[in-house]
Amino acid sequence: MRTSGLIHAELLSALTALRHTDLFAVSDSGLPVPVGVPVIDLGISYGFPRFEPVLDLILREVTVEAAWGSRDVADQNPEAAALLTDRLRAELIDHDDFKRHIGHCRFVVRTGEAQPYANVLLRAGVPWL
User: Fold this and answer.
1) Engineering a disulfide at 70: which of 23, 25, 84, 95 sits with its beta carbon 3.0 to 4.6 angstroms away?
2) Cα–Cα distance between 118 and 72 in angstroms, integer?
3) Mean pLDDT of each 10-residue bin along the chain, 129 residues long
Protein backbone atom coordinates (compact mmCIF):
# COMPACT_ATOMS: atom_id res chain seq x y z
CA MET A 1 0.00 0.00 0.00
CA ARG A 2 1.32 3.46 -0.91
CA THR A 3 2.30 5.62 2.04
CA SER A 4 2.52 9.03 0.33
CA GLY A 5 1.61 10.92 -2.80
CA LEU A 6 -1.27 9.90 -4.99
CA ILE A 7 -3.51 7.09 -3.79
CA HIS A 8 -6.22 7.29 -6.48
CA ALA A 9 -5.87 3.91 -8.20
CA GLU A 10 -7.45 4.92 -11.53
CA LEU A 11 -5.27 8.04 -11.80
CA LEU A 12 -2.09 6.16 -10.91
CA SER A 13 -2.90 3.49 -13.48
CA ALA A 14 -3.44 6.10 -16.20
CA LEU A 15 -0.23 7.95 -15.34
CA THR A 16 1.76 4.71 -15.30
CA ALA A 17 0.44 3.79 -18.76
CA LEU A 18 1.70 7.04 -20.33
CA ARG A 19 4.42 6.77 -22.93
CA HIS A 20 6.71 9.38 -24.47
CA THR A 21 4.76 12.15 -26.25
CA ASP A 22 1.35 11.00 -24.96
CA LEU A 23 -0.93 13.94 -24.21
CA PHE A 24 -3.08 14.26 -21.10
CA ALA A 25 -4.72 17.18 -19.34
CA VAL A 26 -5.61 18.46 -15.90
CA SER A 27 -8.73 20.59 -15.97
CA ASP A 28 -11.05 22.76 -13.98
CA SER A 29 -14.63 21.65 -13.39
CA GLY A 30 -15.97 23.14 -16.62
CA LEU A 31 -13.66 22.15 -19.47
CA PRO A 32 -15.62 20.43 -22.25
CA VAL A 33 -14.12 17.02 -22.99
CA PRO A 34 -14.95 15.36 -26.31
CA VAL A 35 -16.88 12.10 -26.27
CA GLY A 36 -14.48 9.18 -26.23
CA VAL A 37 -11.75 10.84 -24.17
CA PRO A 38 -11.69 9.20 -20.73
CA VAL A 39 -12.21 11.51 -17.77
CA ILE A 40 -10.80 10.72 -14.35
CA ASP A 41 -13.19 12.78 -12.26
CA LEU A 42 -11.75 13.92 -8.94
CA GLY A 43 -14.28 16.72 -8.43
CA ILE A 44 -16.26 16.40 -5.21
CA SER A 45 -17.74 19.91 -5.11
CA TYR A 46 -17.10 23.23 -6.81
CA GLY A 47 -13.74 24.37 -5.54
CA PHE A 48 -12.62 20.97 -4.25
CA PRO A 49 -10.14 19.66 -5.00
CA ARG A 50 -8.41 22.71 -6.44
CA PHE A 51 -6.39 22.61 -9.64
CA GLU A 52 -2.96 23.45 -8.20
CA PRO A 53 -2.65 20.74 -5.52
CA VAL A 54 -3.88 18.07 -7.94
CA LEU A 55 -1.39 19.23 -10.57
CA ASP A 56 1.40 19.25 -7.95
CA LEU A 57 0.70 15.63 -7.03
CA ILE A 58 0.60 14.57 -10.68
CA LEU A 59 3.87 16.33 -11.47
CA ARG A 60 5.58 14.32 -8.72
CA GLU A 61 4.55 11.11 -10.52
CA VAL A 62 5.25 11.82 -14.20
CA THR A 63 7.87 13.46 -16.39
CA VAL A 64 6.46 16.30 -18.50
CA GLU A 65 8.35 17.66 -21.50
CA ALA A 66 5.88 20.31 -22.69
CA ALA A 67 2.76 22.11 -21.52
CA TRP A 68 0.07 24.34 -23.01
CA GLY A 69 -2.67 26.49 -21.53
CA SER A 70 -5.35 28.81 -22.83
CA ARG A 71 -4.23 32.37 -23.61
CA ASP A 72 -7.39 33.58 -21.81
CA VAL A 73 -5.96 32.45 -18.46
CA ALA A 74 -3.74 35.55 -18.32
CA ASP A 75 -6.72 37.93 -18.02
CA GLN A 76 -9.28 35.65 -16.39
CA ASN A 77 -7.20 33.78 -13.78
CA PRO A 78 -3.81 35.38 -12.97
CA GLU A 79 -3.05 32.81 -10.24
CA ALA A 80 -3.38 29.89 -12.66
CA ALA A 81 -1.54 31.89 -15.35
CA ALA A 82 1.47 32.32 -13.05
CA LEU A 83 1.46 28.62 -12.23
CA LEU A 84 1.34 27.62 -15.89
CA THR A 85 3.88 30.10 -17.23
CA ASP A 86 6.33 30.33 -14.33
CA ARG A 87 6.42 26.74 -13.11
CA LEU A 88 5.58 24.75 -16.24
CA ARG A 89 6.78 27.19 -18.89
CA ALA A 90 3.49 26.46 -20.64
CA GLU A 91 2.89 27.93 -24.04
CA LEU A 92 -0.39 29.88 -24.04
CA ILE A 93 -2.51 29.25 -27.14
CA ASP A 94 -5.92 30.24 -28.44
CA HIS A 95 -8.67 28.70 -26.27
CA ASP A 96 -10.46 27.06 -29.22
CA ASP A 97 -7.17 25.47 -30.31
CA PHE A 98 -6.58 24.31 -26.73
CA LYS A 99 -10.00 22.64 -26.64
CA ARG A 100 -9.34 20.93 -29.99
CA HIS A 101 -6.11 19.42 -28.59
CA ILE A 102 -8.09 17.88 -25.72
CA GLY A 103 -9.53 15.47 -28.27
CA HIS A 104 -6.03 13.95 -28.67
CA CYS A 105 -5.55 13.26 -24.96
CA ARG A 106 -5.18 9.78 -23.51
CA PHE A 107 -7.27 11.07 -20.58
CA VAL A 108 -8.33 14.23 -18.73
CA VAL A 109 -8.10 14.63 -14.96
CA ARG A 110 -11.07 16.77 -13.87
CA THR A 111 -10.71 18.69 -10.63
CA GLY A 112 -13.35 20.63 -8.74
CA GLU A 113 -11.64 23.93 -9.56
CA ALA A 114 -14.21 26.70 -9.89
CA GLN A 115 -11.92 29.42 -11.29
CA PRO A 116 -11.91 29.85 -15.08
CA TYR A 117 -9.22 28.57 -17.45
CA ALA A 118 -7.40 26.47 -14.81
CA ASN A 119 -6.52 23.87 -17.44
CA VAL A 120 -3.26 22.49 -18.74
CA LEU A 121 -2.41 20.14 -21.59
CA LEU A 122 0.71 18.09 -20.83
CA ARG A 123 2.98 15.98 -23.01
CA ALA A 124 4.65 13.07 -21.27
CA GLY A 125 8.42 12.96 -21.35
CA VAL A 126 11.06 10.36 -20.61
CA PRO A 127 12.78 10.26 -17.21
CA TRP A 128 16.29 9.64 -18.47
CA LEU A 129 18.50 8.47 -15.63
Assistant:
1) 95
2) 10
3) 91 98 98 97 97 97 97 97 96 98 98 98 91
The set of catalytic residues is 20
| Identity of residue 31 | L
Instruction: Decide: pTM greater than 0.90.
Output: yes
Q: Give me the phi and psi of 85, to 5 degrees please.
A: -85, -40
Note the Cα 81 to chain centre separation in Å: 13
Which value, to the nearest 10 degrees, does the dihedral of the CA atoms of residues 63, 2, 39, 16 take?
A: 40
Q: Degrees (nearest 5) of the Cα angle 53, 55, 59?
A: 120
